[in-house]
Design a protein that fits this description.
Layout (H helix, E strand, L loop, with lengths): L13 H7 L2 H4 L3 H17 L5 H20 L11 H13 L12 H37 L4 E6 L2 E7 H26 L1 E2 L15 H8 L3 E2 L3 H6 L2 H28 L6 E2 L18 H24 L13 H24 L2 E2 L1 H9 L5 H10 L4 H18 L8 H7 L6 H5 L2 H6 L9 H24 L1
Parallel strand pairs: 3-4
Antiparallel strand pairs: 1-2, 5-6
Helix pairs in contact: 3-4, 3-6, 3-8, 4-5, 6-7, 6-12, 6-19, 7-10, 7-19, 10-11, 10-12, 11-12, 14-15
C-alpha cells in the first residue's frame, strides 16, 4: 500500500519500489512509530478532532499490533514501503475506517522526524550507560595500579616516569567528556516535531504540547519547516560517536603495543584474544584491532550525514531517507565496540615488573637529575648538559643512571653527592610530582576515587529516569 496512490494512474514499478523502500532499515523503529501514533491519536481525541470511540479503537488496534510484532505473531512485510505505511495499513486492516483517521493533521515528514528522535533519544542513553561502565573499569584499575611505575611517552619515546593508573585515568577523562557531549546532544534532541506536518503545520486545532508531554519531550519545535527538515541531531550524535571511537581507537592502539613482546606491559585474557592458523605461538589482540579499524566506519557514517544534508533546500527531501542507515550503523558499531572492549579491559592482566624495567632502561629520570643539580645551584642549561653527558656515559657502559657509580657523576660535575641517587629513584621521581593532575600515587588514588564516584552518580541518575 502506498499512502500517496491517489495522484497516480500507473502502478509503481518493482525497481522503483525497491529503490524507494526503506522498510529494510526503518523497521527497527516499529515501537517508536506505534508509540508516536498512540500519542497522536490521544491528542486528536482530546482536541475533539476525532471521536472518543475512534481514539479508543485506534489505540487498541495499535497496542495489539505492537504486542503481535514483539511476540512474533505479526511479521513486518519486507515489501512494504516503510514501517509507517506497514503499521497504518495493518491498523486499517484490523479496525477498518477508524484506522484511516489516524493520519489526520500528520504527514510522514513529521512522523519520520518524530520516530527517529524517539529512537535516538533511547540510544543516546544506551551508549552513555556503556561509556559509564567503561569509565568504572578504568577507575578500578587506576586505583589498583596507582603506584605501578611505567614510562610516560612523547613521540612514542620514553620520556618521564608516571604510574599506570595515571595513564589509564587520561582515558577516563576523555570518556567523561564524551558523557558530557552525549548529555548535551540529548538535550538539544529533546524537541518534539510532530504537528509540523509536511512543512507548514495544519489548520486543525491540535495541541502539540499534549503530544510532547505524552512522549516525554522537554519542548516542541518552534518552526514547522525546521521541524521536518532538521537532522542536526543525527549529525551531532554521529559526531559524538566519532569522538568516542577516536578515544577507543587510541586506547586500542596502546593495548596492541603493550601486548607485543617488545613492550609486554599487559596480557589479554584468552577469552578476548585469538590465535593464528599457522603460527601456534601467536596470541593476537583482535578485539583491540577491530575497534581501531571500526573507527573509520563510524567516521564514514558521520561524513555521510554531513554530505547528505549539505545541499538540501527546505523542507523535506527524499535524500534525507539516507540519514537512518548512517546513524543506525554508527550507533550499532559503537555499542558493539564498547560491549567487547569493556570486558577485555576488565580482564586484562598487568605486568608491573616489565613496566618498571622499561622505565629504568629509558633514562626517564634524566630530567629529575638535572632538576637536582639546579636545586643545588647549577644553572639549568649547565645541569641539562651535564645530565646529557651522564646519559651518554651510561649508554657506553651499558647501565642506567640509578646504577652509574658516583665517580662518573663527579667526573661530569663536582656538585653531585650520594643524595642524587635518592632524587633519581623512579618511585621518588613519581611521588614528587604532586602538582594537581600529576602522577604522584596519592593523587592518582584520589583521582581514581573521584572518577569512580562520578561514574556511580551518573549511573544512579540514569536509573532514576
Amino acid at each position: 500500500m502506498q499512502l500517496w496512490k491517489g495522484r497516480f494512474k500507473k502502478e509503481l514499478s518493482k525497481t522503483t519500489n525497491d529503490f524507494n523502500s526503506s522498510i529494510s532499515f526503518d523497521s527497527r523503529m516499529f515501537r517508536e512509530d506505534i508509540e508516536g501514533s498512540i500519542a497522536h491519536a490521544t491528542m486528536l481525541g482530546k482536541c475533539g478532532i476525532i471521536s472518543e470511540e475512534s481514539q479508543a479503537d485506534i489505540i487498541s488496534g495499535l497496542q495489539s499490533i505492537l504486542a503481535d510484532i514483539e511476540s512474533g505473531a505479526l511479521k513486518i512485510d519486507p515489501e512494504a514501503e516503510d514501517i509507517h505505511t506497514f503499521i497504518e495499513g495493518e491498523l486499517t486492516r484490523r479496525i477498518g475506517d477508524n484506522g484511516k483517521r489516524l493520519h489526520t493533521s500528520r504527514s510522514r515528514n513529521d512522523q519520520v522526524a518524530l520516530d527517529i528522535k524517539l529512537y535516538l533519544k533511547k540510544e543516546v542513553v544506551n551508549v552513555k550507560k556503556l561509556v559509564v561502565d567503561l569509565i568504572k573499569v578504568i577507575a578500578e584499575k587506576a586505583e589498583k595500579y596507582s603506584d605501578t611505575v611505567m614510562p610516560g611517552y612523547t613521540h612514542l619515546q620514553r620520556a618521564q616516569p608516571i604510574v599506570f593508573g595515571h595513564h589509564l585515568l587520561a582515558y577516563g577523562e576523555m570518556l567523561l567528556r564524551d558523557v558530557s557531549r552525549l548529555e548535551d546532544c540529548l538535550a538539544r534532541m529533546d524537541e518534539m516535531p510532530l504537528g509540523s506536518c509536511a512543512l507548514a503545520g495544519t489548520t486543525y486545532p491540535i495541541d502539540r504540547t499534549v503530544t510532547a508531554d505524552l512522549l516525554g519531550f522537554a519542548r516542541i519545535t518552534n518552526n514547522s519547516l525546521d521541524g521536518v527538515s532538521d537532522r542536526d541531531f543525527c549529525i551531532e550524535f554521529a559526531s559524538v560517536l566519532s569522538i568516542i571511537m577516536v578515544h577507543l581507537s587510541r586506547f586500542s592502539e596502546e593495548i596492541i603495543l603493550w601486548c607485543s613482546w617488545e613492550f609486554k606491559f599487559v596480557e589479554l585474557d584468552d577469552a578476548f584474544s585469538t590465535g593464528s592458523s599457522i603460527m601456534p605461538q601467536k596470541k593476537n589482540p583482535d578485539i583491540a584491532e577491530l575497534v581501531r579499524g571500526k573507527s573509520g566506519r563510524v567516521f564514514g557514517d558521520t561524513m555521510t550525514l554531513l554530505t547528505v544534508m549539505k545541499g538540501i533546500a527546505l523542507a523535506y527531501n527524499k535524500d534525507m531517507q539516507e540519514d537512518k542507515e548512517a546513524i543506525f550503523d554508527a550507533v550499532d558499531t559503537v555499542k558493539m565496540c564498547l560491549t567487547a572492549f569493556i570486558p577485555m579491559l576488565d580482564t586484562m592482566r598487568v605486568l608491573p615488573q616489565n613496566m618498571r624495567r622499561a622505565a629504568a632502561g629509558g633514562f626517564i629520570n634524566a630530567t629529575d637529575c638535572a632538576d637536582w643539580l639546579t636545586k643545588n645551584g647549577v644553572p639549568f642549561r649547565d645541569a641539562y648538559k651535564a645530565t646529557g653527558e651522564l646519559v651518554a656515559r651510561c649508554i657506553e657502559l651499558g647501565t642506567d643512571l640509578e646504577n652509574l657509580p658516583l665517580a662518573e657523576y663527579l667526573a661530569v660535575c663536582d656538585v653531585f653527592t650520594e643524595e642524587v641517587y635518592d632524587a633519581i629513584s623512579l618511585e621518588r621521581c613519581v611521588s614528587q610530582r604532586t602538582a594537581f593532575g600529576g602522577p604522584a600515587p596519592e593523587l592518582v588514588k584520589a583521582q581514581a576515587q573521584r572518577v569512580k564516584e562520578l561514574a556511580e552518580n551518573l549511573s544512579r541518575a540514569d536509573a532514576k529516569k
